[in-house]
Each structure stands twice: as structure tokens, then as C-alpha cells.
Amino acid sequence: MRERLFPAGNPISALTILSLLERVASIIDNVQSCQQRMEERQQELENNIKTIQGDVLKLAKDHTDTSGTVEKLLQKTRKVSANVKEVRTRVEKQNVRVKKVESTQDELLTRNKFRVVIYQVSRVSEC
Questions:
Q1: Cβ-count burial of 31 within 10 angstroms (0-12 exposed, 13-18 middle, 19+ buried)?
Q2: 103 in a domain, yes or no?
Q3: What does the alpha-carbon distance between residue 26 and residue 20 come to, in Å, rounded to a whole number?
Q4: What tens digit of pLDDT does each residue of 44-89 get?
Q5: C-alpha span between 99 and 107 (Å, rounded)
Q6: Residues 14/8, Cβ–Cβ less than 8 Å
Q7: Cα 116 vs. chain centroid, distance in angstroms?
């Protein structure tokens, strides 16, 4: 390597050595500067990742809370649906009974064996 940098027969001067040392120092400074920028960038990335991890944890917690709320709403909806079905069944049964009573009433009225008189009681309000 020495022959390539310094051809044979030429003496190596102090200026040449100083020049080479300055180049090496410049290269080392550049490498250190690049390394420092890379370390700063690495620290910045780590901070960003920590922020993202915090956001993901918060999102997961919010999702869990929302899931619990939705489950409660679904349970209430199921209860309401069951109650609506029960009420519908009772109304249908009552409707059948009312039709049966109406039918019986019509039958009795046609036979003239039964008369229905409806009285309306009116209340007098006191002032």
C-alpha cells in the first residue's frame, strides 16, 4: 500500500503526513457527525414508536370499553324484543277473546235474548 500512495524513491515529507492526517481527521469528523445524526434520528424514532404504542394501548382500551357498552345494549335490546313478543302474544290472545265476545254478543242480540245498555256517567266538576 505504501508503494501505491508513495512511489518508490520519493521521501515522505512531514507536509504529506500532515495532509494525510488532516484528511483522516476530516473523514473521522464526518463519520462522527453522521453517527450523531443517526443517533438523534434513532432517538426520534424511538420516541415516535413510544407515542404510537401509547396510542395503540389507548385505542385498545377504548375498543374494550366500546365492546362492553355494545354488549350491554345488545342485552337490553334482547330483553326489549322478548317483552315486545310477549306483549304481542297477549294482545293477539286478547284480540281473539274480544272477537269471540263480539261474536257471542251479536249472536245473543240476534236471538233477542240479551240486550246491552251502556251508561255513561258524567262527572260534574266543582269550581
A1: exposed
A2: yes
A3: 10
A4: 999 999 999 999 999 999 999 999 999 999 999 999 999 999 999 9
A5: 12
A6: no
A7: 64
**Count of domains for the chain:** 1
The Cα 28–Cα 25 span in angstroms is 5
Residue 15 falls inside a structural domain: yes
- If one counts every other C-beta atom within 10 angstroms of the C-beta of residue 86, the result is 10
Residue 83: give the domain boundaries: 10-111
Q: Full-prediction pTM beyond 0.90?
A: no
Taking only Cα atoms into account, the Rg of the chain, rounded to an integer number of angstroms, comes to: 49
Q: Is the pLDDT of residue 12 over 90?
A: no
Q: What is the pLDDT of residue 85?
A: 96
Q: Say which amino acid occupies 96.
A: V
* Residue recorded with cell 315486545: 84
Per the prediction, the chain carries an average pLDDT of 87
d(CA 125, CA 10): 134
Residue type at 85?
Answer: K
Look up residue 70 and give its amino acid: V
List pLDDT tens digits, range 90-101: 999 999 999 999
